[in-house]
Write a structure and sequence with these properties.
3 helices; 2 strands; mainly alpha; two-stranded antiparallel ribbon; elongated
């Protein structure tokens, strides 16, 4: 479980980062796992991290669509009830 902490952090931060920053974080995550840039394993790690981020985003969208919670955005904050 502990080894997936960098992945969880990268996925969580992906919502408020530019695409370039997300890719940099994903690259850093894979390097942290010991994969070297330019190798097949590094590429596979990047693909895995990217797919997991997309899966989590889709799951969050499905959960939001099926939720009866109403959220509004105002004054730079989101309010949900």
């Amino acid at each position: 479980m502990r080894r997936f902490a960098p992945l969880a952090l990268a996925l969580a931060l992906g919502a408020c980062m530019s695409p370039a920053q997300v890719r940099e974080q994903e690259s850093h995550t894979c390097q942290g796992y010991g994969f070297s840039p330019g190798t097949d394993r590094f590429s596979h790690c990047l693909m895995y991290v990217d797919q997991e981020r997309q899966n989590r985003r889709a799951a969050a969208a499905r959960a939001a669509a099926s939720s009866s919670t109403t959220c509004t955005y105002g004054n730079g904050m989101m309010f949900c009830n």
